[in-house]
Amino acid sequence: MNIDELVNRINELARKHKSVGLNEEELAERAKLREIYLGNVRRNFRAQLESIEIVDDNGK
C-alpha cells in the first residue's frame, strides 16, 4: 500500500468513525494503519536529520 492509499484509508475510517462509528475490526485496522504512517514519517524525518551537515564559518 503506497502512502496515498494509506492516508486515504485512514481518512475514510476517520469519516466513518465520526458519522456511524467503527466496529472492532475497523478500530484495529485504523490503529495498524496509523502506526505504519507514523513509522514512515519517523523514518523520513530521521533520514532528513541524518543528511544535514553542519559547517562553521571556517568551512569545517
From TrEMBL:
Its main location: cytoplasm. Pfam families: DUF896 (PF05979). Gene3D superfamilies: Helix hairpin bin. SUPFAM superfamilies: YnzC-like. It is found in: Cytoplasm. Keywords: Cytoplasm. This is UPF0291 protein J2Z22_000182.
